[in-house]
Design a protein that fits this description.
single chain, 20% helix, alpha/beta, 4 helices, elongated, three-stranded parallel β-sheet
Length: 150
């Protein structure tokens, strides 16, 4: 290795280009900004979503519909699910805790509504936040009872 062959390690030396320092530097003239336009001017600040005068995406896409901020969302559980739980566990009372233990709901804080799909064979005491008319009729027809939670 000779002294003349020494070079700095790759990536250790950054070349800082001094733009706008005259034609002799090779980076004068337009100073790498191109010709005219907003980006060539001083004080240019691109606004988020600006597309050079083209209609921006957030104004092009259609806006429709309505999201009700007061919507009450229920977890729907059908009679056949209640019958499965009663068959598996032998429980005569279905509460939110029983539904949670059987993996039907993810939290006791969720609102639960019982719907009328399926057939109920057992006499059950069911506690939930809501009941459809068909579910209520089916539970009471088998001699069971319902409790509406707040």
């Amino acid at each position: 290795m000779k002294l003349s062959e020494l070079r700095p390690a790759k990536g250790s030396v950054k070349s800082k280009k001094r733009i706008g320092r005259g034609e002799g530097s090779g980076l004068g003239g337009t100073s790498t900004k191109g010709h005219k336009g907003a980006k060539a001017r001083t004080g240019y600040d691109s606004k988020p979503g600006f597309e050079g005068g083209q209609q921006p995406l957030q104004r092009r896409i259609p806006k429709f519909g309505f999201t009700n901020p007061n919507r009450v969302e229920y977890k729907a559980i059908n009679l056949d699910v209640l019958q499965d739980i009663a068959t598996k566990t032998g429980a005569s009372e279905i509460t939110l805790e029983v539904l949670l233990q059987n993996g039907v709901i993810s939290s006791v804080k969720k609102l639960v509504k019982v719907l009328g799909r399926g057939e109920l064979k057992a006499k059950l005491k069911v506690s939930a936040h809501g009941f459809s008319k068909t579910a209520q009729a089916a539970i009471e027809a088998k001699g069971g009872s319902i409790t509406t939670l707040k």
